[in-house]
Structures are given as C-alpha cells and as structure tokens.
C-alpha cells in the first residue's frame, strides 16, 4: 500500500546510510535473498541495501545518486532555482545544475535489464546532454522573458516569477525522466511471472514504468514549486510583508526546503518499485508463455 511504502522510504532516506562502505552494502544486499528469518539488526542491513544498491541489478549505486543523498544535494539546487534572479546567467546556472543532477539520478536508477553493455553508449550520452540543455533553457524562460521583454509591471513579474514556474517545473521534471529513460521504451525491459520466472522482454511494461516514474517526478517538483510561491503570494495579499519585507526570502527558502523534504518520500511512494502489468496488455508473444494474469517488472526510480 501507499502508506507502507511511505513508511519504508522514511527509513531508506536516512542520510546516515551514506556513511556505509561498498563492502557493507554488498554484505547487506546478500541478506535480501536469504530464506532465514531476519532479526532487528538484519532489517537495518536490508534497509541499507535497499537504499544503496540498484533494485534490478544489485550493484552499489554511486554515492551522490543514492536516494538518501537526493535531498541534501537537490535541496539547495531547487531552492536556488526558485529564487528571483538578477539575470539570465544566474537562472541558467542553477537550472543547469538542477537538471544535470536530475538527469543523472534518473539514468542511474533506470531499468537496465536488457542492456548488453555496462558502459554508457555515445547515443545515450548525447540524449542526456540534449535533455539537460533543453530543460536548462526552458527552466530559465521566466527570467528570460523578464529580461528580454523588459517586463517591469508588478503583476506580470508576479506571473513570471511565481505562477509560471509551477507548471514549468512539473513539465520539465516529467520530460527529464521521459527522455533520459526513453531507450527502455524502445528495447523493452525484463518482466517476470507470479513465480518469479523471466517471461521475456516487454516494451509495454517499459512504457508503463517510465511513465509512472516521470509522473511521480512531476508531482514532486510541481508541488515543491507551487506551495512556496502560492504561500508567499497569499502572505503578500494579507499584508504580512509590508512591515517585514526582509522575511519574504527566508519564508520562500524555508517553505521550499520543507515541501521538498516532505514530497520526496511521497513521490517515491506513489508507485510500487515492483510494477505490475496485466498479461493482456503485453506483447502477444509473451502472453502464451506467461503464467498468471499479472506480470511484474522493476520500475526504477
């Protein structure tokens, strides 16, 4: 259920898990396949494995792209990207860092079950570079509009700086995941039957996995952009900042960080990491050999 996944992610996002070595992570990962009843210490080891190793391959994740590192790294980038900037260069700089990190995170947590080579191909590198370039420029559009069109009207500046970033952040987060993991929809991903036996490679399951992951990321960044901006607008309408204008920036920063920290486990919990798809929805060649009405796959993150 969603609540059980949320409770699990609250444990898995503990930043202290980043202090564990690769050897400790591999040792913890070996406990997942154990048939013995796990004790309290073993459950801690399982949490370490789930937070630090790839769900599909079991490989140790790079330190900066592990889920516990997502808030400490993306938090400052999100807050900085939502700030009113003095120029286009500053907006492009923070957007570039944010979109680059999100692209790397999506790529590391992809489903690589059908990839023959472990090394990243040149084509995939070009896709990632193009995604980062496009989303960086699109993310800086509000500041570009203000500077290039010389917008000085307060209502129009409010529209560009507080309203436009909300749908823009959600759309770019969705697009980032969709393009970085597009290769999965072309090659397909491994699916399993109810007994855990490989049933083949499915493009339909890959499309469902990528779409769900992109949607969860759009919810994360759309909500993170909406709440602080709408909160500041509400307080402005109430006259809260008339006598305390210096409180506007801290209010925006703190609320953005709090909302991001709250929404990360929520967005990660929206869909199960082990996705399901009806057997009738996959390719015809897989339907005959699969047992049961439901097939399973690793969704990625």
TrEMBL record:
Residues spanning the membrane: 125-146, 214-235, 256-277
Ribosomal protein keyword on record: no
Cited Pfam families: SFXNs (PF03820)
Primary site of residence: mitochondrion
GO cellular component: mitochondrial inner membrane
Location in the cell: Mitochondrion membrane
GO molecular function, one term: monoatomic ion transmembrane transporter activity
Keyword Mitochondrion: yes
Domain of life: Eukaryota
Topology versus the membrane: Multi-pass membrane protein
One GO term (biological process): mitochondrial transmembrane transport
Regions annotated as coiled coil: none
Alphabetized UniProt keyword annotations: Amino-acid transport, Membrane, Mitochondrion, Transmembrane, Transmembrane helix, Transport
Protein family membership: Belongs to the sideroflexin family.
Identification of the protein by name: Sideroflexin 4
Organism: Xiphophorus maculatus (Southern platyfish)
């Amino acid at each position: 259920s969603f609540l059980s996944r949320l409770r699990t992610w609250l444990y898995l996002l503990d930043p202290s898990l980043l202090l564990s070595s690769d050897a400790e992570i591999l040792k913890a990962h070996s406990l997942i396949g154990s048939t013995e009843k796990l004790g309290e210490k073993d459950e801690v080891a399982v949490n370490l494995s789930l937070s630090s190793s790839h769900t599909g391959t079991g490989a140790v994740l790079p330190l900066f792209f592990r889920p516990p590192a997502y808030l400490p790294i993306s938090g400052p980038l999100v807050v900085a990207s939502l700030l009113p900037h003095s120029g286009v260069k500053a907006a492009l700089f923070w957007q570039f860092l944010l979109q680059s990190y999100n692209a790397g995170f999506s790529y590391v947590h992809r489903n690589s079950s059908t990839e023959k080579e472990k090394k990243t191909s040149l084509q995939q590198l070009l896709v990632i570079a193009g995604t980062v370039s496009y989303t960086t420029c699109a993310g800086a559009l509000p500041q570009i509009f203000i500077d290039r069109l010389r917008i000085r009207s307060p209502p129009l500046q409010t529209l560009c700086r507080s309203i436009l970033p909300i749908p823009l952040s959600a759309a770019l987060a969705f697009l980032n995941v969709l393009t970085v993991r597009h290769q999965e929809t072309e090659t397909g991903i491994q699916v399993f039957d109810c007994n855990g036996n490989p049933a083949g490679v499915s493009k339909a399951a890959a499309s469902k996995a990528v779409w769900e992951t992109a949607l969860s990321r759009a919810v994360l960044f759309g909500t993170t952009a909406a709440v602080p901006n709408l909160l500041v607008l509400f307080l402005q309408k109430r006259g809260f900042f008339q006598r305390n204008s210096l409180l506007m920036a801290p209010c925006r920063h703190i609320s953005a960080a709090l909302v991001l920290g709250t929404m990360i486990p929520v967005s990660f919990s929206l869909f199960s990491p082990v996705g399901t798809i009806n057997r009738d929805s996959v390719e015809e060649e897989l339907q005959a050999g699969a047992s049961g009405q439901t097939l399973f796959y690793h969704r990625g993150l």
